[in-house]
């Protein structure tokens, strides 16, 4: 959870908080040296099983042990509800696997799944089975987090405190949690599925006792079921909760967002956290060091000063990943989850009030599902982890603050980790001032099986660029033979066995020099492929006749891929950092009858290396035929390092003409090259213009004689919401108390006028960046604006006096105050008080008073049916609100617009009036099969126009454009919402909030990127308007 950007409207929490210093250090452990392992997979030392938990998922103080194998859980956060197209979920999971990750952490949204008391719906995008099955197919573990997005109805219907052991709160969540259990039981690891852990709740405290009791209530429900995976919890801010005592779980980790969330100043860094390790020792040293949420991006707030997510992607970019991710490694963390890996879209009413529709988060995969440069760095780090089983079990030996003196440069800070069963060591280097932009040079004094060495042996030093970290390995074994690295000053990208040949791919920045010494036979006959690359027999007497040594040096300026060693049993390569990122290592599935055949280290250790394509999703090997599936952006040269004797290589089902690569092969070739060409259809995609708009007024509620007799009478005088009305006559006008919790809600206050009335005071609460426009009869009085400017000047509640113009009052008759209010979601639990009731936001009218006289009836109307009886079960409870056009179904495809006025959206409302109108248009797409096209709907960039636009695409509210506030103007929409092979409907609910000013949105459909490939077979589920939907007609 990590930030106020969470759209889990309240149930969880996290972010506007600058996390208190986070933690760690460690005492030296004297490791027992053991010689090279005989198999990639380590033997697991027997330990007592965790009581009540499947033997399939265990742990010791080092790491998880899954199916008897030690695992470094390397994970990314992915919220399926933020990509409401289940047939696209495999796209994200395949991209996670291709990046080298082995797990995803998945938040669910209680409010979407449990829209009303006792009602649980796992249909469509709320489903779990398609997620689990796609994860199983990809070979991705799942840590499930059900405690997201508290159901809005609970804030009104539950009298007890939320997130405590209050009886009615316990009753409220029972159906939801039991539904999650029922859906998950068949897919947990003990049943052959991908689910290995369930997180109880999010970032909370164990005190007072009612909090601990709440956790225990949850645990009891899981324990009484057939769920047998680990139950986990993510602590934060040094709270030290739920490690023991009432409510304690099987495994506790610590969330950390060390860079904060100021995307406006993306180059301003905070120093790395230096006491993670010490914190772990103090709190739960018997458990592996777990980071359930580590900063993988940042939220961005409302306001014209908000910089957008491109700046967040810089704040948490490649330099951040290098320094801060490796600082986690240095703290000996072996379970790491990046929040977010793919952020997606907070469509409809899902956003937290502090943020806008996009939940891009500056993540490794953009909202559009495109891969960013951050993805490349995650892949480089992940494939090192996957290739390095010795790294899964390490003791923290020492660092530069505890007496470790191995660096020749005091400005370079070193942490030493060592495997206790093997000679392998890992030296993690960073700048002592982790924010430094200065390049530092140093030598490293290491102890190896060959004795003490000062490395590098040939180069003058190791170079560390500003804001860079790196891992220097020593006595690093790889492959099936006795070959290994004595040391390498450059990172390992891949190490393993391919086709019976030991393969090692090292990489490094082209602006730096690099050196590695490894066991191999020196081949004088092998010609250098570059004058910048030198391979020589290692000087001195370090090697022996039986175990000869070779040292390679790569001078600065080298770019591309080069062979360092090439024998029939060994292939050692070096690439510059950018070239390394073009390589992929897809897993080859194990035995067909093994449910874990796609899980690396569990069901398979077979792979190939593939260079060139934009993305390699899958690889299958049948006999001497290799089939590859992936995506292309441009033409590419395909390089395959695979088994020998390949007779066939195909790409997306098309056989390729290929040949052995003489640069890399010897004897029986196992390095092949081929040309990949993108289809001509990538260049010829036609993007239709949005034109021929139909228009109709969507505010009949202000017309004289409007009949609101079917509306709900707002006559409650009590509420379970703790924030009581400020003034009025005792009636409570909170939307959720009447079934209308989210999006637009309309209020109508009736009074019989004497003629003396001059004004009305209204206090309106709608959340950050809300708005409410007010009319007396059909006369516009004004708009109350919520606000936020990059999380400053936050206004979520207003108290305004609205003056009646002359002639607006009709003496002796029924007069009506109409309030159109847009809510921006419920608040999350306060991090100041940890009081769950802080989520019970009083969205509505907290005060109403005429300057003279009294109100009669107040009526309220939100979405059709409220939360108990809304008609659109496919799109769900948070998709629409109470605008008349929404209630009537104008936003749905197929609604008949015959007789509507033809009016361009860019013309705005007639006569520049304040009001609300609906604009509808249709267009057709014909995207060739086999292309993954990324579209968005883009409004004009300029901010300041006084309007809100609710963007509906085929009935789904995919964006809320607040033009006076911003910053969002681009709204990505995916296939599945868009019909790529037929007609599409776009509807815009335009709310002009100030009369006489230009409020004329310009909207266009834009093709941002297109790739040959994709997951294919994307299903469209966009129910059309039906006259039987119980929607009003007037």
TrEMBL record:
TM stretches of this protein: none
Annotated signal peptide: 1-28
Record family assignment: Belongs to the glycosyl hydrolase 35 family.
Catalytic activity, EC: 3.2.1.23
Keyword NAD: no
Lineage: Eukaryota, Fungi, Dikarya, Basidiomycota, Agaricomycotina
Gene3D superfamilies to which the protein is assigned, alphabetical: Beta-galactosidase, domain 2 (2.102.20.10), Beta-galactosidase, domain 3 (2.60.390.10), Galactose-binding domain-like (2.60.120.260), Glycosidases (3.20.20.80)
Keywords attached to this entry: Glycoprotein, Glycosidase, Hydrolase, Signal
Protein's name according to its UniProt entry: beta-galactosidase
All residue ranges annotated as the Beta-galactosidase domain in the record: 393-583
Any GO MF annotation of the entry: beta-galactosidase activity
Keyword field contains Signal: yes
Reactions catalysed according to its record: Hydrolysis of terminal non-reducing beta-D-galactose residues in beta-D-galactosides
Any one Pfam family match given in the protein's UniProt record, by short name: BetaGal_dom2
Biological process terms in GO annotation: carbohydrate metabolic process
């Amino acid at each position: 959870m990590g930030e106020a950007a969470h759209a889990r409207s309240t149930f969880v929490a996290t972010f506007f908080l600058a996390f208190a210093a986070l933690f760690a250090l460690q005492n030296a452990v004297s490791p027992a040296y053991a010689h090279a392992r005989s198999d990639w997979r380590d033997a697991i030392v027997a330990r007592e099983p965790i009581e009540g938990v499947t033997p399939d998922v265990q742990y010791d103080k080092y790491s998880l042990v899954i199916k008897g194998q030690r695992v470094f859980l390397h994970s990314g956060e992915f919220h399926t509800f933020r990509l409401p197209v289940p047939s696209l979920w495999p796209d994200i999971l395949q991209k996670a696997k291709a990046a080298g990750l082995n797990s995803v952490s998945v938040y669910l949204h209680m409010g979407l799944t449990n829209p009303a008391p006792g009602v649980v719906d796992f249909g469509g995008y709320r489903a779990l089975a398609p997620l689990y099955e796609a994860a199983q197919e990809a070979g991705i573990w799942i840590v499930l987090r059900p405690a997201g997005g508290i159901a809005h109805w609970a804030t009104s219907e539950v009298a007890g405190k939320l997130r405590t052991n209050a009886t009615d709160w316990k009753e409220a969540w029972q159906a939801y949690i039991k539904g999650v259990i029922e859906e998950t039981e068949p897919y947990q690891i003990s049943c052959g599925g991908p689910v290995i852990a369930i997180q109880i709740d999010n970032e909370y405290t164990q005190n007072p006792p009612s909090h601990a009791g709440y956790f225990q209530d949850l645990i009891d429900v899981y324990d009484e079921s057939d769920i047998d995976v680990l139950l986990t919890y993510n602590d934060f801010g040094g709270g030290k909760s739920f490690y023991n005592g009432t409510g304690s779980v099987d495994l506790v980790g610590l969330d950390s967002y060390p860079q904060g969330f100021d995307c406006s100043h993306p180059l301003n860094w905070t120093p790395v956290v230096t006491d993670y390790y010490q914190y772990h020792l103090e709190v739960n040293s018997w458990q592996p060091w777990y980071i359930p949420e580590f900063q993988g991006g940042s939220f961005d707030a409302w306001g014209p000063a908000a910089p957008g997510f491109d700046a967040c992607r810089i704040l948490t970019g490649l330099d951040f990943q290098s320094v801060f991710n490796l600082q986690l490694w240095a703290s000996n963390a072996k379970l790491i989850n990046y929040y977010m890996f793919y952020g997606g879209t907070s469509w409809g009413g899902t956003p937290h009030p502090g943020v806008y529709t996009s939940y891009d988060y500056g993540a490794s995969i953009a909202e559009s599902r495109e891969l960013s440069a951050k993805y490349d760095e995650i892949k480089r780090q992940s494939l090192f982890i996957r290739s390095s089983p010795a790294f899964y079990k390490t003791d923290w030996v020492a660092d530069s603050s505890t007496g470790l003196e191995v660096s020749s440069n005091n400005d370079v800070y070193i942490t030493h980790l060592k495997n206790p069963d093997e000679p392998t060591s890992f030296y993690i280097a960073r700048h002592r001032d982790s924010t430094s932009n200065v390049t530092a040079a140093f030598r490293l004094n290491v102890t190896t099986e060959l004795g003490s060495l000062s490395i590098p042996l040939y180069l003058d030093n190791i170079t560390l660029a500003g804001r860079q970290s790196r891992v220097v390995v020593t006595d690093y074994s790889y492959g099936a033979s006795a070959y290994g690295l004595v040391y390498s000053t450059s990172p390992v990208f891949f190490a393993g066995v391919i086709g019976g040949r030991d393969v090692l791919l090292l990489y490094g920045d082209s602006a730096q020099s690099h050196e590695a010494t490894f066991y191999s036979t020196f081949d004088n006959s092998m010609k250098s492929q570059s004058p910048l690359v030198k391979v020589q027999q290692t000087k001195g007497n370090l090697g022996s006749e039986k175990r000869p040594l070779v040292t390679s040096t790569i001078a600065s300026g080298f770019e591309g891929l080069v062979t360092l060693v090439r024998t029939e049993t060994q292939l050692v390569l070096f690439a510059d950092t950018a070239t390394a990122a073009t390589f992929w290592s897809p897993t080859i599935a194990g035995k067909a009858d093994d449910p874990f055949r796609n899980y690396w280290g569990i069901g398979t250790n077979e792979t190939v290396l593939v260079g060139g394509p934009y993305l390699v999703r899958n690889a299958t090997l049948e006999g001497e035929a290799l089939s590859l599936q992936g995506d292309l952006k441009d033409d590419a040269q395909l390089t395959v390092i695979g088994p020998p004797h390949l007779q066939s290589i195909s790409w997306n089902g098309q056989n390729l003409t290929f040949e052995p690569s003489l640069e890399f092969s010897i004897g029986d070739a196992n390095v092949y090259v081929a040309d990949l060409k993108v289809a001509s259809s990538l260049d010829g995609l036609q993007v239709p213009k949005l034109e021929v708009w139909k228009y109709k007024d969507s505010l009949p509620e202000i017309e004289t004689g409007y009949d609101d007799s079917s509306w709900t009478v707002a006559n409650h005088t009590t509420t379970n919401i703790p924030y009581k009305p400020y003034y009025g006559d005792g009636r409570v006008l909170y939307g959720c108390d009447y079934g209308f919790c989210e999006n637009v809600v309309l209020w109508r206050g009736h009074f019989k006028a004497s003629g003396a009335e001059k004004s009305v005071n209204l206090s309106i609460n709608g959340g950050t960046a809300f708005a409410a426009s007010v009319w007396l009869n059909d006369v516009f009085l004004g708009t109350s604006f919520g606000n936020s400017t990059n999380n400053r000047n936050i206004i979520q509640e207003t108290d305004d006096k609205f003056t009646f113009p002359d002639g607006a009052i009709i003496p002796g008759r029924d007069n009506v105050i109409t309030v159109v209010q847009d809510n921006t979601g419920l608040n999350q639990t306060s991090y100041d008080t940890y009081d769950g009731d802080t989520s019970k936001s009083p969205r509505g009218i907290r005060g109403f008073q005429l300057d003279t006289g009294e109100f009669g009836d107040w009526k309220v109307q939100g979405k059709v049916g409220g939360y108990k009886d809304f008609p659109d079960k496919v799109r769900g409870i948070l998709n629409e609100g109470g605008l008349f056009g929404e209630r009537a179904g104008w936003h749905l495809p197929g609604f008949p617009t015959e007789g509507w006025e033809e009016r361009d959206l860019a013309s705005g409302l007639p006569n520049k009036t304040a009001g609300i109108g609906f604009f509808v248009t249709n267009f057709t797409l014909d995207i060739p099969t086999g292309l993954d096209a990324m579209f968005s709907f883009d409004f004009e960039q300029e901010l300041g126009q006084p309007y809100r636009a609710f963007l509906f695409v085929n009935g789904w509210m995919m964006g809320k454009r607040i033009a006076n506030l911003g910053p969002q103007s681009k709204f990505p929409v995916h296939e599945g919402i868009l019909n790529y092979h037929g007609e599409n409907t776009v509807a815009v609910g335009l709310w002009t909030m100030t009369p006489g000013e230009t409020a004329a949105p310009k909207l266009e459909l834009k093709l941002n990127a297109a790739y040959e490939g994709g997951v294919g077979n994307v299903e469209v589920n966009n129910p059309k308007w039906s006259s039987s939907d119980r929607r009003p007609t007037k």
